[in-house]
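Sample intake sheet
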Amino acid sequence: MIRKRNRFQRRGVAVVETAVIMPVALMFVLGVSEFSLMLMARQSVAIAAREGARAAARQHGDTGDIRAAVDRVMTNAGYDGYSFETNVDEIDYDDRSVSVRVTLPWDRFAITGDLFGGGTFDISIETTMRREGDAPRN
């Protein structure tokens, strides 16, 4: 004999399934959002380092040109508290490459708290380019 299932025996199952799945799905979405923000910050730092190195690679590029290029990119991206290092003042004419390193401390408030690691760390990118122009001849 086949028993008919009573539809009232499964009442509330959808609510329980939602209560189990919803927190997991929400944490996944928040984790993806936080990772996307960090990836966007890393891309902005990489662009700033590249633009700073391009400014330094010009024939008469100096630290002021680098600062202006890095400030322009990072200000447009909405970040502050960053720093940069360069070897422009230290190189001589035999050394034809210039380097610019941009560092952004990443201490943003995490939506998920310390669940995915949290904490503070630095996003740091270094770009090296060949300097333009001819070296002076003795």
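Comment: Residues 56 and 107 are 29 Å apart (CA to CA). The longest strand covers residues 97-106.
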